[in-house]
Amino acid sequence: MKCSGCGAEMRFDPATQMVVCGHCGTVKDPFFAEEQCRIVEGSQGESYLEAEVYQCPQCGAKLLSTDETAVTFCSYCGSSVVLEGRLEQEQKPDYIIPFKKTREEVEKLYKHKVSRSLFAPSYMKSDDVVSKFRGIYMPYWVYALTNTSGLRAKGKTEERHGDYVYTNNYLVSASYDAKYSGLSFDASSAFSDSLSEAIAPFDVHARVPFKTAYMAGFYADTRDVKPYVYIDNASEIVSRDIARKAALNPAFRKHGATETEIEKSVTLRTEPTGGYFPVWFLAVQTRDKKRVSYAVVNGQTGRVAADMPIDFGKYLLGSLILAVPIFLLLALAIPMTPAILTFTVIAFALFSLLLANTLLNQVYTREMQYDDEGLQFVLDRSSDKKRYQMFENMKRIKAPEKIRTTWKVLAGMVIMFLVWLANTKVLVSVTASDLWYYGAAIVSILLNIWTFFDIVKAYNKLTTRKPAQLGARGGDERA
Ligand SMILES: [Zn+2]
Ligand SMILES: [Zn+2]
Fold first, then answer.
1. Which one in 216, 234, 294, 351 has a CA-CA gap of 20 to 30 Å to 406?
2. Domain boundaries, the chain
């Protein structure tokens, strides 16, 4: 936005909620400022912003800006490339929640979060990385739901009189008025649902009618998820809440109408509106530049969510510092009889096994982006075949990879168990000396440590993402 006084670029200032010129000090109220780009009316009464849309040549992500600006890095894959700009029409949101948190506040919040995480790699805090926080308005669908009829539910009560049980059936109906507003879901497939959930909620009541001046100095992501995608989610949340509250009503409760029965009778009218919500966004590339971890900050409340990979060196040092004293204490406190040793080691191995399994499952879910309905929608629409192929591939590698991680722990358990078995003379009549126990315990513990390294590797996969998957967007347009 150009300053009317001196022609310099003006910015929306979250601290004062005004558009400010850093050069001559001119201040403007964004609500009364002139629109910064052409607004085009569509055939169905909807409006579009005609603004510069920048697309990353690496990953295909898109950013929209109403300023004349050069975009020199991508906020989604983290690569330093110049994004190519092109004039495009983007659906104009009805509302916007303006940024409240300034860049300085956000950098401080993020650095605090990283320093509290013991094993986070140090490059995540470097000034160069942190300076790449970018204020992006995320498109959201905001749903308002109203129930359109009363509630009717079948109920059943039972009475016992001597040897007889009487069953009473009821049909309970009640008038019920409910209005829910402000249920919101992100409408960009590039913004993962797990991240948007982690920085939720936004206070939707603080929204104001959309004006382009709020975007001065900021960007917006493009809206590529249709409003009907989340209607089922919104309806389910609201129906369940209505049923839960209605079930407490004596009319339903006394006649044995359950929540499930009441929920079936809820009918809702849903009205979606488009909103822009403020998110400070940062993509950090891993050392090999193959994956990224994201840090996002709610631009209204300051809530931080960040992927925190584990640095192997820091992890190893930390575990040694922690493990050595614990081991010494245990050895001094409990007399290590062979039996206690055997079962301690086996219990430890079982724990690693469970942890490895849980983490690996999470990694696969994330890799498949199964936790992102917005992205699922785009993938479903543009490349059913590709997605099916991905799923098949994943199934094929899932089992062998799990075995690769867990066989070591299993082997350790088996060795430990065999030595114990040998000593109890159940199978063989050889008496193992204590030395055998200690030997087996050491081998088993080493195998455990090896597994923990693999778990850290899996965890790092969980806390970093494959940026290439964003290439899925726009699949339709290129075809
Ligand atoms: Zn000026
Ligand atoms: Zn990119």
1. 294
2. 312-462
Write out pLDDT tens, residues 288-320.
Answer: 888 889 999 999 999 999 888 888 888 778 777
Q: How far is the CA of 66 from the centre of ligand 2 (A)?
A: 20
Element (H, E) at 170: strand 164-174
pTM of the model as a whole = 0.77
Please state whether beta strands 268-285 and 95-96 pair in parallel, antiparallel, or not at all (unpaired).
parallel
Lowest mean pLDDT among 183-187, 257-261, 380-384, 388-392: 380-384
Which run of H or E residues covers position 147?
strand 134-147
Kindly report the CA angle at 257 between 256 and 262, in degrees rounded to 5? 170
Which bound ligand lies closest to the C-alpha atom of 27?
1
* Distance from the alpha carbon of residue 68 to the mean position of ligand 2, in angstroms: 20
Q: What is the tens place of the pLDDT at every residue in 209-220?
A: 999 999 999 999
Could you list which residues have their CB under 5 Å from ion ligand 2? Answer: 56, 58-59, 61, 74, 76-77
Report DSSP state, residue 284.
E
Report the separation in Å between the CA atom of 56 and the middle of ligand 2, taken as the mean of its atom positions: 5
The residue written with tokens 């039996």 in the block is 339
Axis crossing angle, helix 384-423 with helix 373-382, rounded to the nearest 10: 130
Q: What is the pLDDT of residues 96-112, one digit of tens each?
A: 999 999 999 999 999 99
Interval between CA 470 and ligand 2 midpoint (Å): 8
Nearest bound ligand to CA 76?
2
Report the alpha-carbon distance of residue 431 to residue 424 in Å, rounded: 8
Distance CA 397, CA 465 (A): 18
Our CA dihedral for 133, 137, 141, 146, rounded to 10 degrees, sits at: 110
Averaged pLDDT, 339-365: 78
